[in-house]
Amino acid sequence: MSIGRAVPQVGPRKGDIFVVEFPDVGGHVQAGRRPAVVVQADHFSRSGTVVLCPMTSSAPADDHPRPHRVPVARAESGLDRDGWVKADQLVTVPAAVLRGPVARLAPAAIDRLDVALRFVLDL
After folding, report:
1. Hey, what's the torsion of the CAs at 35, 40, 46, 49, to 10 degrees?
2. Could you tell me which residues are beta bridge partners of residue 20?
3. What CA–CA distance (Å, rounded) separates 70 from 113?
4. Which of 4, 8, 48, 68 is the most core-located residue (most Cβ within 10 A)?
């Protein structure tokens, strides 16, 4: 490594979207194969684990605002439909199970997700 050179990015970056198989653990927790967004800081990209939030394309049943559910237009995600990030369902998976990424959140969507995570984690 040379002085003054940045270390190249290795591993998942915050905002990357991967398709993940979530186990069915019951309740209202997301299950099955679905997109999920990396929410951990980039300086953990070389870690053996990755912290994610699952996404859903199912709209809320009513118009009641949910600060833990982040709306993401397909233009902001690169996915084939609009959806939501469920910031209240953080999960950690081994980095080795991830293939991709398949898409990436736009900076404005990452900013909204950060607000939701601060709400969920009371930061």
Report:
1. -60
2. 34
3. 6
4. 68
